[in-house]
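Z., the sequence and structure:
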Amino acid sequence: MFEIGSALREARERKGLSFPQVEEGTKIRARYIRALEEEDFGVLPGATYTKGFLRAYADYLGLDGHLFIDEFNSRYHDPRREDDKPIYPPSRPRASGHRRETSIVLIALAAIVAIASMVFLVMGAGGNSHVNLPPPPPSTPSSSNPSTTPAKKQTKQTRHHHAASKAYTIGLTASGASWIYAHKGTPNGPAVISVKHTDLSAYLMQPGETAQIRATGPIAITIGAPGSIAVTINGHAEQLPPGLKFTITRKGISQA
């Protein structure tokens, strides 16, 4: 066991680095660097980002970033926190709750079938015992099947067109280096992968670099240096609101 903040501070001071120099070298804001050295992790935007900053800062100082992440997990990682839930598998009570809901649905369906059968039997027992039904339609040759094919194809095409109409494109262009943390739906959702197959869930964009995201729903994104990132939606430039955390949809950008 070792002190995370003291180890980082001593390494920085041995190298004679100031906070502005570290911020320039790591692209992590100085107040987050100071929070890491003071172990004031509540200042940082969640456990996932804290681990990313720890690893980047330790590596920058020539230390083993994985050791610092392991120490952080053993001392500070609290699975009860909302932003830590995706790190762990779902708890058993939730799974049993899901099974109970499934059982209730199956019981309800069985009851409906039973009631329908009883009604059918009662109606068959009373009144006329024979009901004149129209004769079945004459059998049609197998060639009639293709007549339904265009309708099926049209349905598939309609669904495909509907899904395509929901998709939109997000463009990110970096004028300076900045960390990007992009996830689908929420900050704890699946990682966002760019059209060039770059994992943007914890990615350091370099000056002049661009990334395109093909999305169908909201994108939760944290930008370490918002002033260095330009965002477009379907080719139209969008203004980032104040802050670091944002939600991007086809309609625009809002502060998360």
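Residues 142 and 148 are 11 Å apart (CA to CA). The helical segments are 4-14, 19-26, 30-38, 47-60, 65-76, 92-125, 145-166.

Let me know what you think.
H.
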